[in-house]
Amino acid sequence: AMLSPQQASPRQATSPITSQAEREQALRDYKLTIEYKHLKQHAPGGVYLLPSFDDLRLFHGVIFVRRGPYMNGIFKFQLRLPAKYNDSNTWPVIIFSSSVLNPHVNARSGELDVRSAYAAWDPHKHYLVTVLTFLKKIFYMKRDNFVAIKPESAANRDALEAALSDPVKYRKSIEACVQESQNILYVADSSGQSMFSEEQVCHQVLRELLLQNVNNPASVSRSSVIEMVKEAEHSK
């Protein structure tokens, strides 16, 4: 018996992604992973971002503020991306879990007013590093930066009015905000991914090893750092 051409031909491989919408979403996912890889080399100084274990569009972050009115503040936040990011006008959403007193941060929700900086989100110009740069910028703004903000459009109107009318009191409130960020540093968040532990002997040993052996951080090898970490771990 002869086989028909349809029976004789080998079965063609089929893609698990069958619809146009699924293909487009897979491409968005791929672009996001590339963007995050790029971010690891180009993130603003003092800002760190970790992807969620089970959600490609959820990140857990922390910023260490090194100078200015918020100096020594350590503020945790979550960054959520819309499903269709990075299409036009798919703004990232950043919500601080630490309390942040700032005209650009909603006092109740902790949400950063991203749209005040980017009225339109352009995927050809705006990326994760873009919004993280704005996040860092709000901690270094001076009084002159707040003058242009309209009270009715401020994320935190009370903070704006205090910054403009009573800078001394506003500065003291910021200092209290910084102190609170330090007080809750070791409190684990719901994700369990932004965890800090109090200093132990191994941390002290590692710091001493780094100071002794690393003259130029840019030239130190990954393997040598790992060896120093292992040595410090043995001091527990």
From TrEMBL:
Q: Where are the annotated segments for Disordered? A: 1-22
- Enumerate the spans annotated as UBC core domain: 27-183
Q: Name one Pfam family in it.
A: UQ_con
Checking PROSITE patterns in the record gives: UBC_2 (PS50127)
Instruction: Give me the stretches of Polar residues compositional bias.
Output: 1-20
InterPro entries in UniProt: UBC, UBQ-conjugating_enzyme/RWD
Q: Which domain of life is it from?
A: Eukaryota
Name of the protein described by the UniProt record: UBC core domain-containing protein
